[in-house]
UniProtKB/TrEMBL annotation:
It comes from Rhipicephalus microplus (Cattle tick). GO terms for cellular component: plasma membrane. It is a multi-pass membrane protein. It is found in: Membrane. Na(+) binds at L103, D106, S107. This is Sodium-neurotransmitter symporter. GO terms for molecular function: amino acid:sodium symporter activity; glycine transmembrane transporter activity; L-amino acid transmembrane transporter activity; metal ion binding. Belongs to the sodium:neurotransmitter symporter (SNF) (TC 2.A.22) family.
Length: 320
């Protein structure tokens, strides 16, 4: 679950944002295909890696734990070792590393788009200067990334990969699903889906969203915090204490945002705390006609579980 959650980018909302641009596609089928394909790819990748690890362990006559290298070593050592057994290994090695390059570039598009969308929504004036904003964001990330290609870049990369893409991402995912299903409400969320797609999500989905997913994510977060150990390079060389403190600072910097802004929202609504847990007046579809219909369906149901008719949006943005 952790591998699928991290590789699909659900915590960073990049997958949700990309789906927003494809309004005419089937959301349910797209989400199912992406998750299943991600799961199968991860399983096949794991099978290939551990098969090669077993072969190398047998050839070198050493335990597997001494052959395996954590982190980037799995991709840059294990796979090339397997490719040496292929016909024309130079060709296959080129194809493999070119694939890694495309994979990295491909992953940057939704991540950067998510950042630009958040900035443009927060500061609408930036929408007029989208190209300039994108150039500044790319340049900033490029300068920051230079530290990962220095002589000690592998140490920096391993530190960031351990702390910034570990328990903090799971904590954010846990807070997202809890806030959506427990505060916004699974019934309200299901009715929103029915308003958009014309059918209520299956009960197994609602059960998973409400109980199973929060429980699993909570267990993973607690386990990650309890079993956290000082980071090591290649499972051999320990980092200095200040590096571990810096890593936890980076991890907590992203996690603290959720309780911090929740406290800000509660403070702003201190005269009516309940309003802090309710959608704003502008919440709803962007299309005016759909927004009126959505508000009417919500107003006509006290528990917000009423049946909602199917509504679609055509390519030009008009309601049908």
């Amino acid at each position: 679950m952790r591998e699928v959650e991290e590789s699909s980018g659900t915590t960073a909302m990049s997958a949700v944002l990309q789906r927003w641009w494809l309004r005419e596609a089937s959301a349910c089928s797209d989400a199912s295909i992406v998750v299943i394909a991600d799961l199968i790819t991860s399983l096949l990748g794991g099978i290939a890696i551990f098969a090669v690890l077993g072969h190398m362990s047998l050839e070198l006559q050493v335990p597997i734990e001494e052959v395996a290298k954590a982190g980037q070593g799995l991709a840059f050592v294990i796979y090339p070792e397997a490719l040496t057994t292929f016909w024309c290994p130079q060709l296959w090695s080129f194809i493999f590393f070119f694939m890694l390059y495309l994979l990295g570039i491909d992953s940057e598009f939704p991540l950067l788009q998510t950042t630009l969308t958040v900035l443009s929504d927060t500061f609408p004036v930036l929408r007029k200067y989208r190209s300039i904003t994108a150039f500044i964001a790319c340049s900033t990330c490029f300068v920051i990334g230079l530290s990962c290609v220095t002589q000690g870049g592998q140490y920096v990369l391993n530190l960031l990969d351990t702390y910034c893409a570990g328990v903090s991402a799971l904590f954010i995912a846990m807070c997202e699903v809890m806030a959506l299903m427990w505060l916004y409400g699974v019934r309200r969320f299901s009715n929103d889906i029915k308003f958009m797609l014309g059918k209520t999500p299956p009960w197994i989905f609602r059960f998973s969203w409400t109980f199973l997913s929060p429980l699993i994510l909570c267990v993973l977060v607690v386990y990650g915090l309890v079993m956290a150990a000082p980071v090591m390079y290649n499972n051999v060389e320990p980092y200095p204490a200040w590096a571990n403190r810096l890593g936890w600072f980076f991890a907590s910097l992203s996690m603290i945002q959720i309780p911090l802004w929740a406290a800000v929202a509660l403070f702003r609504a201190r005269k009516n705390i309940r309003s802090a847990f309710e959608p704003t007046d502008t919440w709803g579809p962007a299309e005016k006609k759909l927004l009126q219909e959505y508000r009417a369906t919500v107003a006509n149901s006290k528990d917000r579980t009423c049946n909602v008719a199917l509504r679609t949006v055509s390519a030009n943005g008009t309601a049908a």
